Amino acid sequence: MSLDFALEALNKILAVLPTTLMLFIFSVLLGLVFALIVLWMRMSSNRLLSGIAKTYIFIFRGTPLLIQIFLIFYGLAQFQFMKESWFWLVLKNRIASAVFVMALCTAAYQAEILRGGLLAVSTKEIEAARAIGMSGFKLLYRIIAPIALRQALPAYSTEVILTLKSTSLAGLIGVVEMTGIAQKIGRQALLDVPVLALAGIIYIALSYVIIFLLGLAERQLSPHLRFMPPSAQTPRTIVG
User: Fold this and answer.
1) What is the pTM (predicted TM-score) of this model?
2) Cβ–Cβ under 8 Å, residues 166 and 102
3) Closest CA to 19 of 180, 156, 209
């Protein structure tokens, strides 16, 4: 592969980077909204709500995202009542549909990750906060949320990276993103591996930025890490 061809391919891949970032950002944010709703239902004392949340999590964690995309985008479009509903506005738009499906999928994982963070909050700390007069929103903001987020961030960052990589599946329903354009360029030039390697390098760079930003958030929520030597922080930063 010549340098000129590599630069041309890189420019074409970078041209659709905004689409990949849009898919990723909106999927994570919408997924977080869904996850908080599912988390509330999952932690509810109401058996019906808890059962619905458990079923939702089981289905979306137990089936591949590829199948979910095909079933929702192509499967639901076969029903006339879906075309007559408001949901058709989302379903007929390939980008919106891809974001919606990825958000549903990541929400199942995010909900369980956040639930694990909440369960990691010690009841003794909550009781101590209540003993000094904290309750309601102040207790949530000052005690529960920081501890839960600190416990959940390492696993949450992994799920965020997986969502970034999942954007490559959006090309299966016609969304032009980095992996799809890289495959097209590679097939035309009979240089599939080198061109896909270029796309892989971009994904690695994006993953590094995400890990770095989430690592900063983890350090902000973990004051004791600020005084640790870099050699002691590296493994945690990599995991987070």
Assistant:
1) 0.83
2) yes
3) 180
